[in-house]
Design a protein that fits this description.
about 0% strand
């Protein structure tokens, strides 16, 4: 099963508990069901308009935009609910301590600001920074979806 409702790395998924993985799977299945329902609704509307001879107008596009808007909102709600759950349920159990503040009550934007400040002030060399960040087991769970983009940024600064 492809998981596209959230953007976690394989390492992040590997650190989730069975309960957390089940929650991710359930939300992904709900999203997949919504996606199928959207495609079916578009197909039904197209058939209905073709049957009534009004398909050539822009009304089909407008109906599709409306259906897509409802779908996007429902998926966003599912995603936000899952991220909220994971924000408070994901804890590092590696026994390692982080050299920066680890407070799970902070928002992800606050968390990433703290982690970025630490790495960018501590490691002036980009290659050292990305190497240290790769070894940071706490950041994998602490940053959630923000981990991968930050890793990519540090990697690009070091090697591109």
């Amino acid at each position: 099963m492809e998981i596209d409702v959230i953007s976690f790395t394989d390492d992040q998924y590997a650190r989730l508990t069975d309960e957390q993985l089940i929650e991710v799977k359930e939300v992904q299945l709900k999203k997949n069901k919504l996606t199928r329902a959207l495609e079916e609704a578009k197909a039904k509307e197209k058939f209905r308009m073709l049957k009534n001879g009004v398909f050539l107008g822009s009304s089909y596009e407008k109906v599709c935009e409306q259906l897509q808007s409802v779908y996007d909102e429902e998926v966003s709600n599912l995603r936000d609910g899952l991220l909220f759950y994971l924000r408070f349920a994901v804890r590092t159990e590696t026994g390692e301590e982080a050299p920066y503040l680890v407070d799970y009550s902070l928002s992800y934007s606050e968390r990433i600001a703290i982690v970025r400040e630490y790495y960018e002030t501590t490691y002036t060399d980009a290659k050292e920074r990305v190497a240290a960040f790769e070894k940071d087991a706490v950041a994998l769970s602490y940053l959630g979806e923000s981990y991968a983009p930050l890793y990519e940024l540090y990697y690009e600064q070091a090697y591109l």
